[in-house]
C-alpha cells in the first residue's frame, strides 16, 4: 500500500513542477510518467543505500536539476520532431480511416458481384448497399479521430483524420474527374454535367457528414492540468 501511495506522489510532484502545458496532452502525460518512474527508482536506490525517506526524496528531486530549465529543454526537444508527431497524429490515422473505408467499399462491390449496384441508387439493392456504406462511415470517422487523439493530435488533426476518406473523394470529384474527362475526351462527363454534380452530392457530401459525426465524440480537447500554486 505504501509503494502505491509513493508512486502516486511522484506523479503529482512531477506534475506540479513541470511546465508542459505547451505539449499535446498524450505527450505531456507520457513525459510525466517517465520522469515519475525515474525519480522513484532514484528514491528507492537511495533508500537501499540507507538514506532516510526525506533525504531520498531530496536526492531524487535534485536529479532533475532546475525544473524550469528542464521544462524548456523538454518542450524544445519535443518540438524538434514535429514531422514524427504529425505522422503519428495525422497521417497514419488518416490513412487508417481511408484504408478501412476503401476496403469496406471493395467488400461491398465484391458481395454485390456487380459494381453498378453501388451507382444505380434507384434500384432497391443499390440503395441498400449505399445506405450500408454510408452508415459504415460513422465507424471510419470514429477510427481516424480516435487514433489521432490517442497519438496526441490536435482537434484539427482529429477532424482531418476522421473525414479523410471524404477529403479524398472531394479531390477526386473536384480535380481528378474533370481533368481526366478533358484529357481523355470523356463525352459522358462533358455532356452530362448534371450527373457529375449529382455524384458530388451523393458520394462526397453525405459520407463527409457521416464521417464527421463519427469523429465527433473524439473531438473534445482535454484541459491541460494547471500547476498547483505553492
Please characterize this protein's 3D structure:
This protein has ten helices and no strands. It is mainly α and 230 residues long. The protein folds into two domains: 2-79, no CATH class; 86-218, no CATH class. Helix 2 packs across helix 3 (53-62) and helix 5 runs antiparallel to helix 6. The chain is elongated and about 85 Å long. The chain starts with a helix and ends in a 15-residue tail after the last helix. Residues 1-8, 113-119 and 223-230 have low confidence and may be disordered.
Lay out the secondary structure.
Blueprint: H1 2-17, H2 25-48, H3 53-62, H4 67-79, H5 82-112, H6 124-150, H7 155-184, H8 187-191, H9 193-203, H10 205-215
Helix pairs in contact: 1-2, 2-3, 5-6, 5-7, 6-7, 6-10, 7-9, 7-10
